[in-house]
């Protein structure tokens, strides 16, 4: 599986819009973008702003084994920084999903592939995509697309461009259940501290 651009999904809603477990990298957005995310993405009421590393991921009965494996695996990967690359969108049959694409760097690719290769029983997105694009979902707009909302999103991204950099220091294992507010954190796995 290549880590670059995500092809059209086979389902109708994109990522993390169903029950299940996922590995994510939580990120903090500037207040203006977080407000727009909360208004524009129904999943934002359940999930923090994040980059999905792996979905669906591991059933909970295996959590003790998986927790120990993830702790060792992620703990060997050195923390790193990422930054915003561009505003993009996924064209879906009944909606358009707008997202912040992050710059693909070797450290991010290594993190993704290390986890994917360690847990082949859980292929990312159930193997439905040949390529994946690391991103932070900002909004899901039903068709017809409200042009004024898209313009508002574009302007907000432009105004906040300098604040779209993140130090990546952990991966979280979460559980999402449709209709249940918030998500449960099944585990939090720190990356190795960067050498000075």
Please provide a written account of the structure.
Helices cover 25% and strands 32% of the residues. It has 196 residues and is an alpha+beta fold. It has one domain: Cyclic phosphodiesterase (Cyclic Phosphodiesterase, Chain: A, Alpha-Beta Complex), CATH 3.90.1140. This is 2'-5' RNA ligase family protein. It holds the Pfam family 2_5_RNA_ligase2.
Keywords:
disordered N terminus; 4-stranded antiparallel beta sheet; 196 residues; 4 helices; alpha+beta; Cyclic Phosphodiesterase, Chain: A; 32% strand; 10 strands
Present the secondary structure layout.
Layout: E1 2-3, E2 20-26, H1 31-40, E3 50-54, H2 63-75, E4 80-91, E5 95-102, H3 106-118, E6 131-132, E7 135-142, H4 147-159, E8 165-168, E9 170-176, E10 184-190
Parallel strand pairs: 1-6
Antiparallel strand pairs: 2-3, 2-9, 4-5, 4-8, 5-7, 9-10
Organism: Sulfobacillus benefaciens
Protein name: 2'-5' RNA ligase family protein
């Amino acid at each position: 599986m290549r880590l670059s651009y995500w092809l059209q999904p086979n389902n109708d809603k994109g990522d993390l819009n169903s029950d299940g477990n996922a590995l994510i990298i939580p990120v903090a957005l500037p207040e203006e973008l977080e407000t727009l995310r909360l208004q524009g993405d129904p999943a934002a009421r359940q999930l923090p702003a994040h980059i999905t590393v792996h979905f669906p991921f591991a059933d909970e009965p295996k959590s003790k084994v998986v927790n120990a494996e993830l702790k060792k695996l992620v703990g060997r990967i050195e923390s790193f920084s990422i930054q915003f690359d561009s505003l993009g969108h996924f064209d879906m049959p009944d909606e358009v999903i707008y997202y912040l694409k992050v710059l693909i760097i070797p450290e991010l690719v290594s993190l993704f592939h290390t986890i994917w290769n360690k847990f082949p029983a859980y292929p990312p997105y159930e193997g439905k995509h040949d390529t994946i694009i690391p991103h932070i979902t900002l909004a899901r707009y039903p068709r017809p697309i409200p042009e004024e909302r898209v313009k508002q999103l574009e302007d907000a991204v432009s105004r906040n461009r300098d604040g779209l950099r993140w130090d990546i220091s952990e991966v979280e294992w979460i559980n999402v259940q449709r209709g249940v507010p918030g998500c449960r954190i099944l585990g939090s796995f720190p990356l190795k501290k960067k050498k000075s």
